[in-house]
Amino acid sequence: MQSVITPATTLILFDHDGTLVDSEAVHYTLWQTLLGRYGITLSESLHNDMLVGMPVAQNAIDVTRHFSLPANPTDIAAQKHQLTREYLKDRAFPLIEDARIAIERCHQAGYQLGIVTGGSQLSVEQTLTHHKLREYISLTVSVEDVEQSKPHPESYLKALAMASVSAANAVAVEDTMHGMKAAVAAGISCVVIPTAQSASHDFSAAQATYSSLTQWLDKEMTA
């Protein structure tokens, strides 16, 4: 397996949902609640295949089309955002089991760290605040910061510009095919840590795939 971290690496960009925080189960529940208002039952398999890893705006288009909902995608997206805001009002999504340790290890090794997500700024802010991770993260790019979210490369290109580094000096850490495509399209080497929800995705374009953040760092990071 090809090593993603190289002597040239100075910047590590983490995806948020599914990579640092265990949020997909919550999002699935929120989508079930929203679609239940229209008498629709959303299966977990359809959620994983169609919605995981994509921004809410695209999710809304997809569910509206798939279920022929009597509402427009903009309204569906607004409802989903409202449900998410209510969930995040006084809490954050739980961290992936080894996310804190991974962030601390990368920071102590001297890498600049960022978060690049198709999720909301609110979600990232709650993570940084409630889990006390702000001191480790020097930049964030969320869905509000770009015109085209993942799998488009804009979010990663923006992160590179903010950090003033080239793609050759960066590594992306993702959990979905859509995020991987965004990183690769930006010219950034990508390591993938699949989740149960994204295990069936095609990760053939990734430079490496590991079962956990810890396994990846134990293999590739000597510092």
What is the fold's blueprint, element by element?
Layout: E1 11-14, H1 24-36, H2 44-51, H3 56-67, H4 73-88, H5 99-108, E2 112-116, H6 121-130, E3 139-141, H7 154-163, E4 170-174, H8 177-185, E5 189-192, E6 208-209, H9 213-220
Parallel strand pairs: 1-2, 1-4, 2-3, 4-5, 5-6
Helix pairs in contact: 1-4, 3-4
In short:
This protein is of the alpha/beta class.
Keywords, please?
alpha/beta, 9 helices, 6 strands
Question: Please, could you describe this protein's structure?
Answer:
- 43% of the residues lie in helices and 10% in strands.
- The chain has nine helices and six strands, in the order βαααααβαβαβαββα.
- α1 packs across α4 and α3 crosses α4.
- A six-stranded parallel beta sheet has the order 3-2-1-4-5-6, sandwiched between helices.
- The chain is of the alpha/beta class and 223 residues long.
- Helix-strand makeup class: alpha/beta
Question: What is the arithmetic mean of pLDDT?
Answer: 94
| C-alpha-based Rg, rounded | 17 Å
- Quantity of strands, as a count: 6
